[in-house]
């Protein structure tokens, strides 16, 4: 463990985690897991707050840094840009005494093997304190910088949602709520809410998700009543709508395509325990193993297959499915509040590739649907190209596909939930069925 002075290690390791995301393209969760091994247990909440906050607001913080540096940093000193961002985030957004924030951030240069940068880091942070108002005005004059979004993504949101873009960007930068999914096979939402209250956890329900409860204050999962035996799971309310829209019945055969990490798989089994078979498919063996561990905690069983949803010939046994859920690979722009590294990692060409993959999966899995069956297409995106435009194009090229008339989904041709709507993540759903049969 490095950095013995109070607060120095979490600041140095936060800079390293941010650097791993920004320069190496790693996920923030993976980078944080590695960084946490260098920090005392008591300092890990601070490390997480620093890393998540700095990544969430990175572009805006970089806008400050660009104006505060008299000359660009050398490539070998790129880590200092991330340390400066960590320091600036504390000064602008955290309730850390400024003197302590500056002192510990400057001292972190030693841990990062950049001791000669002490004066530079000190000068930049103190200049920000003096010139803060003018710097904020200059950076916030540009909406993409104000909301810390890359130009291409903010422009895409503004084009798709011109009237909602400010609220959408603001919601995407909010600290996400902690939604729970009560295991319907083990008890009611109301009974579990009483158990939470007895344990000191206040929670509120959601009108559209019958098993959903939102904690007023997030808590460690291990502290939740009945976590270990599977009475409850963590899942956003928007993701919980999938099971009701798919509406499987006892005796039916169900495919959950692109199923990992398995929250929707588990919810389907909890709410319809009498399904004949649920096939959970994912292209990643590692993620499928994670799904299986989750099902084991809940004492649930599914047939888990490693396979590519776009190429069913390699794994399909020829028997049709009564229900198919396509939890499609997507840009994840609806869950940026949970994964702020999306803003640093995602590129415009990624969306192009994902749109093509989504179309390929829809075309490949539609023939696997039994007459009278229902297919639900879902993404956690707020980009129209992946959602209503994708489904409109599919309907145009697929004569025997129509929107399911009894799904309750508002036809656009699907339902778009924008981030923050009734405190949910951003999600999209479209319910489809064969045109000559009834679901």
Summary, kept brief:
The chain is built from 17 helices and twelve strands.
How are the SSEs ordered, and which strands pair?
Layout: H1 8-22, H2 28-36, H3 44-56, H4 58-68, H5 78-93, H6 98-111, H7 118-140, H8 143-146, H9 151-160, H10 165-172, E1 178-182, H11 189-198, E2 203-205, E3 212-215, E4 232-234, H12 241-246, E5 253-257, H13 263-271, E6 277-282, H14 285-297, E7 303-306, E8 321-327, H15 342-345, H16 348-365, E9 369-379, H17 388-397, E10 401-403, E11 415-417, E12 427-434
Parallel strand pairs: 5-6, 5-8, 6-7, 8-9
Antiparallel strand pairs: 1-3, 1-4, 2-3, 9-12, 10-12, 11-12
Helix pairs in contact: 1-2, 1-3, 1-5, 1-6, 2-3, 3-5, 4-5, 4-7, 5-6, 5-7, 6-7, 9-10
List key phrases describing it:
single chain; 439 residues; alpha/beta; N-utilizing Substance Protein B Homolog, Chain A; Alpha-Beta Plaits; Rossmann fold; eight-stranded mixed β-sheet; four-stranded antiparallel β-sheet
């Amino acid at each position: 463990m490095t950095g013995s002075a109070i607060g120095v290690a979490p600041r140095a390791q936060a800079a390293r985690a941010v650097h791993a995301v920004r320069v190496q393209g790693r996920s923030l969760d993976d980078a944080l897991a590695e960084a946490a091994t260098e920090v005392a247990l008591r300092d890990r909440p601070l490390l997480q707050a620093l890393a998540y906050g700095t990544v969430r607001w990175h572009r805006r913080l970089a806008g400050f840094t660009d104006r505060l540096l008299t000359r660009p940093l050398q490539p070998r000193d790129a880590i200092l840009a991330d340390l400066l961002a960590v320091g600036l985030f504390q000064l602008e957004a955290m309730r850390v005494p400024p003197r302590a924030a500056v002192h510990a951030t400057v001292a972190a240069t030693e841990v990062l093997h950049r001791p000669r940068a002490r004066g530079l880091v000190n000068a930049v942070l103190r200049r920000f304190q003096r010139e803060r108002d003018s710097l904020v005005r200059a950076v916030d004059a540009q909406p993409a910088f104000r909301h810390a979004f890359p130009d291409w993504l903010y422009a895409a949101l503004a084009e798709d949602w011109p009237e909602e873009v400010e609220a959408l960007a603001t919601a995407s930068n909010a600290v996400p709520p902690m939604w729970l999914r009560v295991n319907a096979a083990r008890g009611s939402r109301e009974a579990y809410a009483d158990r939470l209250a007895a344990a000191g956890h206040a929670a509120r329900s959601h009108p559209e998700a019958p098993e959903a409860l939102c904690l007023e204050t997030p808590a460690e999962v291990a502290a939740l009543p009945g976590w270990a035996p599977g009475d409850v799971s963590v899942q956003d309310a928007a993701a919980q709508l999938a099971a009701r829209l798919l509406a499987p019945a006892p005796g039916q055969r169900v495919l959950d395509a692109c199923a990992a990490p398995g929250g929707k798989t588990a919810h389907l089994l909890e709410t319809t325990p009498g399904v004949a078979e649920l096939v959970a498919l994912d292209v990643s063996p590692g993620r499928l193993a994670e799904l299986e561990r989750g099902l084991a905690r809940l004492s649930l069983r599914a047939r888990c297959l490693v396979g590519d949803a776009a190429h069913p010939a390699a794994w399909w046994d020829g028997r049709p499915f009564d229900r198919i859920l396509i939890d499609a690979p997507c840009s994840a722009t609806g869950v940026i509040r949970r994964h702020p590294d999306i803003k640093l990692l995602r590129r415009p060409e990624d969306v192009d590739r994902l749109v093509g993959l989504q179309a390929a999966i829809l075309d490949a899995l539609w023939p696997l649907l039994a007459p009278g069956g229902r297919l639900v297409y879902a993404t956690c995106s707020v980009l129209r190209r992946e959602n209503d435009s994708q489904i409109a194009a599919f309907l145009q090229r697929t004569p025997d596909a129509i929107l399911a008339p009894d799904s309750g989904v508002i036809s656009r041709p699907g339902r778009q939930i924008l981030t923050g709507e009734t405190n949910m993540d951003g999600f999209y759903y479209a319910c489809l069925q064969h045109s000559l049969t009834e679901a």
